[in-house]
Amino acid sequence: MALVFGLVADFGGDLRAARAAAAVAAASGPLAAGPHRIAPHPPLPWTDPSGRVELSVVPRGVGSGTALDGDRPRTALTAAEYTALGRALYDLLRAMHGYRAAAVGWNAEPSVDPAELRAARAADPHAWGDDGLVLADTVLAGLGGDDRFLFFAPGFSHLPWRGVRPSSLTADPAP
């Protein structure tokens, strides 16, 4: 199973906004991850069968079994370096517009689907998934709001991201 570390953003049906965000990501250049500078793969906007548009920004060589990396050797990062890379992706997200929900992390796609968030909230009003979720303020209001969300960028709020913890996916020494 592939494990992808990156940024995923949901644009509803707005392909134009996703393409503009992809251009922002493509122009960003390499992202800092401690002493490493890691270029992202070309951003990947895609539309699902329902017309929902997502954009993925996936740094090269930091996932596990990621098809985009092919035979490229994996860059071993510590939890602190993944956290720095994640923060660089969040900084990149601050320059984007038109998305409804976004997150950075391992296989973040399910956490940015507003329909899935709505269903989770119906079952548990405190269910937001992982920390680091960014929502357009209009989406957050439509989901009933939550005082735990803080300002992220104009028009967007987030559950602050705590970063990556040491695990079998990081290059941290075993305890």
Automatic annotation (TrEMBL):
Q: What is this protein called?
A: Uncharacterized protein
**Domain of life of the source:** Bacteria
State the species of origin.
Nocardiopsis flavescens
Q: What is the lineage of its organism?
A: Bacteria, Bacillati, Actinomycetota, Actinomycetes, Streptosporangiales
